[in-house]
Amino acid sequence: MRFDRIWTGARLATLSPSLPGLGIVERGAVAAKNGKIAFAGPESDLPSGWTAEQRVDCAGRWITPGLVDCHTHLVFAGDRAMEFEMRLAGASYEEVARAGGGIVSTVKATREADEETLLKSALGRLDRLTAEGVTTIEVKSGYGLDLPTEARLLRVARRLEIARPISVATTFLGAHALPPEAGGDKDRYIALVTDNMLPAIAAEHLADAVDAFCEGIAFSPEQTRRVFDAAKALGLPVKLHADQLSNLGGAALAADYQALSVDHLEYTDEAGVAALAASGTVAVLLPGAYYTLRETHAPPVETLRRHKVPIAVATDCNPGTSPLSSILTAMNMAAIEFRLTIEEIIAGVTREAARALGRLDSIGTLETGKWCDLAIWDVERPAELVYRLGFNPLYKRVRRGA
């Protein structure tokens, strides 16, 4: 067999579900052909007579699947350092939002920014993530709250794939907050999202999924259902920001729609977790937001484990509640704040994050036929990726075999 490229002398964390734990292969090799994995496993199992145009000796380094950041708000303008100061002085998330801060303040800056300005600022954040081994990223809109700006945000997100070697999943988050011009009428704004924005976004093929923020300061379960019904009618899968500040039953609601993921989940109860388990929906934990908001009510990790709900971890990179553009820091936070294990965390930024994007068939594990997206690490053991802070041991990042 002739490969385009082969990496030998590596220790693999394949994340293959057919192997225990991280799917470790101590002396392994990964081979690429036409951008996809043509072989991943013990070197001793390589087919006889194989050749490769390029051979790379990894000298005992670890190879994992390329990392997947499955929840970000990467494209926006402005910053929210002022509200950070407010929170340090004791203001709650709700108090900041009701004082005119929060999402709406980012909306004002974002509406005033042109496409090139948005692209330039997003690329800076993206470059920091790819420097830590990220090969696939989800990017949400939600800082426009009108059709022209929401579409502009999603177009910029699509352009990231052209500007950098990265795979981008786009998510329409029109139901993120209530814009000032809505005059407090949430139902009328949701009608605008479902009847005007969503059909236009779908017609232009700008979104791979649809999200909403189901919370007291955002939208009710009934309003969220209207958004999901419209998304499903257009053939778009759904995701949900749910149970972050209170339990409105968002997890169970999203499970009713077979959501790809439900994200945050700090206040989710056992009934909600059981619903996620039944639907196969991924629980995405966002330790950056938990840390920044100084929350004390942690997600129900033990309950998620007991019900065997897939758990992913992401940065939630955004200008206000999680100004975090380091997937490695998010991994450490998930260990310290949520007591996730090393195995759960590494799976959470590879296999389970891919599952949360509906892309597990093509990324997230080192298995034949998937895209050859790799992160090669200069570490002695996988735990080093989680336990050290301010430490980036990435040796090489490979996307689609290159």
Number of strands: 15
Order of helices and strands: EEEEEEHHHHEHEHEHEHEHEHHEHHHEHE
Mean pLDDT across the residues is 96
Helix content: 25-40%
- Give the helix/strand class: alpha/beta
| Residue fraction in strands | 15-25%
- Cα separation of the termini: 19 Å
What does this structure look like?
The chain has helices at 81-88, 93-98, 103-111, 115-130, 147-163, 186-203, 221-233, 250-256, 270-279, 287-292, 301-306, 327-338, 342-348, 351-356, 384-387; strands spanning 2-13, 24-33, 36-42, 51-57, 62-65, 67-69, 134-140, 167-175, 209-214, 239-242, 261-264, 282-285, 311-313, 374-377, 394-398. With 402 residues, it is of the alpha/beta class. The longest helix is centred in the middle third of the chain and has 18 residues, at 186-203. The two termini are 19 Å apart. The model has no long low-confidence stretch (mean pLDDT 96).
